[in-house]
Design brief:
- The chain has 172 residues and is of the alpha/beta class.
- It has one domain: Rossmann fold.
- The protein contains six helices and nine strands; from the N terminus they run αββααβαββββαβαβ.
Length: 172
């Protein structure tokens, strides 16, 4: 990808102060998702370091689903959802983890054969709790982590140290 295409895609990410609570700077990727060229640029960049090394893309709810679906289609593979607790009819594994502003739990079904190579995709790496939980749930199901890719990494929050290495398209 060209640096101009990446810069243009990054410029479409809006920063919303005090959402979902005071002191949080929310990164709204909706404008980027609505732009076909920008979306294609970031999808290709998410795949690039892992091309040919994964069988399935797993996306973390909710914005990770949007990116993971696009990555899976572009790579010609399937997509497996990692959902918030209570959203799956047949959860096989569940992991609780800490967020920057609370706690949460994720679940995943056992629809993939053991040993399947999985690229884990999410929208953002902050403190690393969500992605570390994603790594843990894949391991509990006997799946092989092929890599982890995010659209954005919030620099300075230590996420790479918690769950790294993580490929980030943008560092903000």
């Amino acid at each position: 990808m060209t640096s101009e295409a990446l810069a243009r895609a990054e410029s479409l990410i809006a920063t919303i102060p005090d959402f979902p609570e005071p002191g949080i700077l929310f990164r709204d990727i909706s404008p980027l998702l609505a732009d076909a060229a920008a979306l294609q640029t970031v999808v290709e960049e998410l795949i690039a370091p892992f091309r040919g090394e994964f069988d399935v893309v797993a996306g973390v709810e909710a914005r990770g689903f949007l990116l993971a679906g696009a990555v899976a289609i572009a790579a010609g593979v399937g997509m497996a959802p990692i959902r918030k607790a209570g959203k799956l009819p047949r959860p096989a594994a569940s992991v609780e983890y800490a967020l920057e502003y609370g706690t949460a739990a994720i679940e995943m079904s056992d629809d993939l054969p053991r040993g399947t190579r999985v690229l884990l995709v999410d929208d953002i790496l902050a403190t690393g709790g969500t992605l570390r939980a994603g790594h843990q749930i894949l391991g509990e199901l006997g799946l092989t982590l092929a890599g982890t890719a995010v659209l954005m990494e919030l620099a300075g929050l230590g996420g790479q140290g918690v769950c790294g290495p993580v490929h980030a398209v943008f560092r903000v």
